[in-house]
Amino acid sequence: MRRLAGVEDEEKWLAEGIAGIQHNAFFMHRALDANNLREVLKYSALMLSELRTSKLSPQKYYDLYMRAFDELRQLEVFFKDESRHGLPVVDLYELVQHAGNILPRMYLLCTVGSVYIKSKQAPSKDVLKDLVEMCRGVQHPIRGLFLRSYLAQVSRDKLPEIGSEYEGDANTVMDAVEFVLQNFTEMNKLWVRIQHQGPGTVREKQEKERNELRDLVGKNLHVLGQIEGVDLEMYKETVLPRVLEQVVNCKDELAQYYLMECIIQVFPDEYHLQTLETLLAACTQLMVGTLTIEIFLFPNLQCNCMLRVLMLPLSLEGGLSDLSPTVDTKIVLTQLMDRLSNYAASSPDVLHEFLQVEAFAKLSNAIGKVIDTQIEMPIVGAMTLFVSLLTFTLRVHPDRLDYVDQILGACVVKLSSVPKLEDARAMKQVVALLSAPLEKYNDIVTALTLSNYPRVMDHLDDGTNKVMAMLIIQSIMKNNSCISTADKVEVLFELIKGLIKDLDGTDTEELDEEDFQEEQNSVARLIHMLDNEEPEEMLKIICVVRKHLMTGGTRRLPFTVPPLVFSALRLVRQLDSQGGDITGEEVSATPRKIFQILNQTIEVLSSVPCPELALRLYLQCAEAASDCDLEPAAYEFFTQAFILYEEEIADSKAQVTAIHLIIGTLQRINVFGVENRDTLTHKATGYSARLLKKPDQCRAVYACSHLFWVDDIDGIKDGERALLCLRRALRIANAAQQMSNATRGSSGPVTLFVEILNKYIYFYEKGNPHITPSDIQSLIELINTEMQSDDNGNRRTHSDPFFTSTLRYIRFQKQKGGLIGDKYDLIKL
């Protein structure tokens, strides 16, 4: 209620002040119309007396000030026209100094002083010096700040800078700089003094008011940055030392941080670079500690667009609730490095300037001092500084990896002082620190050469470690980076260990299944990016990867083992194409050794259990061993596949898929001798006939016919055994029809018969002497009989499309003529 009453009182006082200004402005305007100088001065002084109030907050005082400012614009127009008031400007300058109160007197003096300078009847430097000195008569902080802000505004276009009409023998750029610096110094003193007014109980209110007024002070620095003729030498010798003297000596945290921010933002980047040592020295002299109030910062403040307080209303309606978190020295250093980084990125021509001034060494030393002296600095603050320094280094010295590693090493030292990194903001900064080299170099291989890179990652929690590991893999995939040495693979898998094994205290069962699959698929894709043309080194890589993957647990192996197996098989085929084994000092890169490793690897996978996947991989290895003419290895892989089929695969659908995979692989392999092949084919046909469902049995058995007739030059061609498989399949199909009739009361579809018919036609075309036209014709008649009626004598009206297409094919072959036509003419439809 007390605060609400205070707001209502302020509104009342503001309304009274505005009413007073409007009342006296009315009579002033009437006097202006009558060209009555005496009345004009009288009522303008009374109007300006309303600004003497001490009851208003800075925001409300600003509203009152703007009312008076608008009237002073019209008063200045009157003073410029000597024909209206009939008094020389020199005499007018003397006359307004007789106003009764200091505040109206100074506003009138500044207004007439602006006209006096414009008339050029006196050197502008003398008038400006007189005005800035006489403004010392107003020592009330708020009134004094607005008065000096008015002086800065009316004199801005009358400074004797280069190219200005007021520049001359008696007026130099140095005079303009001196005026602005003196005005800035006095305004800063008034601004800092606010905190010492009133009891300590109103400290929060005072700091809020100071925060509302700060842009009045900063506007002077903005003017300094815009003065034409302030070159590097003048900035280095005069401007910067004078400004920094005020910043350091004011011993006020709010003033120091805000003014340092202004310095960084309003002056050119090349000036900062050439005065870097001076700026950094000033940063280390700032008051150590954290502000006790919340300070509103302009993080996006640009040097060419600072808020012009006197032209736009202050946006302060939210009070302290709109203010940002507390700041410390790291804000200043971060902004400085960001500005310098952007300057370096703007043009390659400026990079040599950074080398000349040894910017990295100076920034690194300054950051080290700040972190060491500010013992209570939060870890997120130190990480923010390291990120900014690393960004600066990557832009200015992209070829200096030792600088990057040095920064990461300093980060490790700082993180080592913390038992466990739990701050989410600090984690985010560490991720940014680790991501910067990846984004800059677009090559993980470069990051792998940084010895401190994995040491920084060790300080991340498990969740963040995984996020960083995913970023590393995404960078590799995006840039198509190839990791080509076992040592680099070792380092890489240490970096992504959060994805390939359970870290301490991590339970994979708690992970989201979709996220887990995405992580493991990323690891699988990564394995395919590991390659080396030297077989010996590639085998080392495979062994390193296998060592890490075997620690992954039962949930990860089904995702990560297959790409490892195919990577090893690619190496096997590479060795086979080179026509021999490659033997090194430590590792022998031979197909036999690789197959041994693969056998051990897949055996682990089969115990997960994941027998279907293991069986597929065994068959892939068997085919690769066949290509290398390694019959024992191929036979061993088939043996393991059959063992899995017998002992681990119980689901009927999985058995059907598995037996067809075995048959298809065995058909393509031609390395086996007669004995081994007979053993394997016997096993395959036996398992085919023992499938649960008759249709599955039938299809698997007629598929086995291809094991005895391979349409290759060197392929086996045992037509009799192929025919036996087909006849056996036909018996099974007939049994299936009978079972269908017994259970459903009608025969089932003739699809199985038609499929067997197509196998007969296939082998007949391929020249199997045991397949005769009469066999095909008999089967066609059987199908026709089955289609014409069921066992109850009911005639079927529909036909089988597959059978119709088969008959159409036979007719087509008949019409070809020649040997093919003669062959098919023997079949009577």
TrEMBL record:
Keywords recorded for this protein, A-Z: Membrane, Protein transport, Transport
Subcellular location: Membrane
InterPro entries from the UniProt entry: Vps35, Vps35_C
Organism domain of life: Eukaryota
Statement: the UniProt record of this protein carries the keyword Nucleotidyltransferase: no
Keyword Isomerase: no
Alphabetized Gene3D superfamilies for the sequence: Vacuolar protein sorting-associated protein 35, helical subcomplex Vps35-C
Topology in the lipid bilayer: Peripheral membrane protein
Short name of one Pfam family: Vps35
Main subcellular localisation: membrane
PANTHER family (alphabetical): VACUOLAR PROTEIN SORTING-ASSOCIATED PROTEIN 35B (PTHR11099:SF6), VACUOLAR SORTING PROTEIN 35 (PTHR11099)
Family listed: Belongs to the VPS35 family.
Role noted for this protein: Plays a role in vesicular protein sorting.
Protein name (database record): Vacuolar protein sorting-associated protein 35
